[in-house]
């Protein structure tokens, strides 16, 4: 591995992204008969951001700091942009250029004209002679217009507050974007009665989803579209409205408030508190149903999450677990009957996408409809008093009502008080369900979900089939289920025999490789298998290289379903297919928020590829080692969060997952950051499984110089080598420099030696960059963090903490051990074995994914 290649690459990247524009800023107004072509050479301020998004601004107001602009916006993509919105966005500018550094902030879209119909390169926007603003795609098809021709428009401008306005000769507003909100509101904007914010499908797809927030005559309601709409949040005014003027919500500095009448603005009724704006703020209804307020301040931060007041808590959002998914404390599962499964997850690795019926409901055969009885399940629309179809009824009548109406998908029954009577809800589409915690909600609730059971039941789970009590009251179902169970038992036995045969064949060696692959393909919950051709296409013939490691290169790619991925092509892997598949199985079984997820793999001929989730902020090294070239990148809170994430990921690897795993190559290059700077550990390439019983079984040296624990010189290797490397990484994050940094003065080239000498002088804080005001201002916390690193760096590995102890220290429930030893580089337990010299040691020796097992 050649780190300097990396360095040059990144420098190039950084200098490219800082392309300056000579054109001064502030061009807020445009005249009639102006045509803009969505072409980078025609629109002056064509700027690409490091997150992959780009903007081509048409109007921009002001010249410093966060500013509103309108123009063509292309969302984060890989490679070339091919779909654009005409949008209003907030960008960071200095007097001559857009600031593209990710540490400063990506463009934030607050309005768009064509969110459901993006246009392509060379599309046009025209403010016509007649005063109409028209957006046409490249083929000339009209996509959107303000329909203002003949209304005496004389020009267009963007206001200080982010309103795009077409005005007439008297400077009065003829058309304004504030009247057509999409999913966001800016400070000073109203949401009028009848208007709504509608969330996008996802961060990357701006198409309208089913979730909306709308102002009604007496309040505010958030709902998911269905027939009828299902409300998940509602707040109403206590005042009776006696004006015919429309009510509205106003987003002001410090609050989001409801007014019953615009002519009596003093009649504010209820409001949500929003932290006072110290800078630009906007609020957005997001694809998860939350209404979040963002504020600028050295990055965009969520400062408020407004519609969570509901008693339903984290689970009270319609799409949190997809259709039919059951949410318990944010975890998703599918409904299960006592006699078997009637639902499967749409995607086993993404349970939050929801569940689908194994046998779909059919209105042609209502005689096969039955109700699956689930106790202690509630539903988000209990938030809406008017949603109950029947009130003060009993559960039996509720079930009957649902059975009689084919469009009813479930009978949801909420008991009132201590009686057996209550309210009955009959939704025509079933979104996420909630595992009801009676201690919290203080009510009983049951769900009866409609399922289709054809004469022969779908194969129920054999383990708890035949003798279990049935959830259906009807005798013929009982027979059907018993019959089904017997069939399933026979089927199960058959399956077992098949598996035995497969396993025996497997033992017969490589000749049966095809069968072996098929066997592997069927292991549920395993990573997807891709063909080489698939991955070649997904990466555009391995076009965009993200990085290079000791054993292969990583490329950016996009799967057929639009998922962005990082594809690692392993070079010169000496492993057979079986070892590789075993490795994939291990890596694929690791599921943790702080571990990069393996989506799939390819093992074809001699090709070996791994497909990982894509992390748009790349690896940590480029955020901490190149500060000289960009603004202070990560603030202290972000750094701290990254350290905690990495600690949690490692604690999981070492102590919680099924097999104890040592990573063996922890370094900033292997720590990836997502768009919110959540850190995930990647590259188990060098990882070595350690059986829980044996604590050290490694036979050859691995890892990267600079991060290697001293005991590598002996042969006692445990997961504590990761703790040591973690200590180095923490120091590098805190100090913003590499452990070995040849650009430093002679005595500080080696950070650990520097730390040791500063410790002897009792001036530990000297190791932190004097220039970094943010770090300096957190002196005490920084000090604690350095102490923690020192604990992790103990030469005697038995004195290092376990990763779970590290997590406890970071969470403040435990203290760092006193009496630390600053002699990091010598292992007090070193055995004989000294032929490897650390300083000149070769790059990582690994040529295999992991060692023998
Ligand atoms: C919001 O109000 C606070 C306190 O009155 C003030 O300091 C701040 O500048 C205001 N923010 C904006 C964006 O007007
Ligand atoms: C409510 O639930 C509790 C505990 O599950 C149960 O003991 C009680 O009988 C239930 N009440 C009604 C009215 O069903
Ligand atoms: C059946 O249910 C749907 C939706 O729940 C409702 O709109 C419709 O009026 C019901 N039909 C009858 C006949 O009750």
State the gist of this model:
Helix content is 20%, strand content 28%. The protein is of the alpha+beta class.
CATH architect. name of the largest domain: Orthogonal Bundle
Tell me the Rg in angstroms: 31 Å
Mean pLDDT: 78
Runs with pLDDT <50, length 5+? 1-23, 457-484, 503-520, 688-700, 828-853
Number of strands: 48
Spatial arrangement of strands, main beta sheet: 39-43-44-42-41-40
First-to-last CA distance: 26 Å
Indicate the CATH class of the largest domain.
Answer: Mainly Alpha
Tell me the fraction of residues in β-strands, as a range.
25-35%
Structure report:
It is built from 14 helices and 48 strands. It has 4 domains: 21-180, Agglutinin, subunit A (Orthogonal Prism); 313-452, no CATH class; 528-613, Phosphorylase Kinase, domain 1 (2-Layer Sandwich); 620-832, Orthogonal Bundle (Transferase(Phosphotransferase), domain 1). It is globular. α4 (475-507) packs antiparallel against α5 (513-521) and α10 (720-735) runs antiparallel to α13 (779-792). The longest helix has 33 residues, at 475-507. With 853 residues, it is an alpha+beta fold. The protein starts with a helix and ends in a 43-residue tail after the last helix. The strands form 13 sheets. It has a 6-stranded mixed β-sheet, sandwiched between helices. The protein is 20% helix and 28% strand. The structure holds 2-acetamido-2-deoxy-beta-D-glucopyranose (NAG) (3 copies). One 2-acetamido-2-deoxy-beta-D-glucopyranose is lined by residues 415, 418, 420, 444.
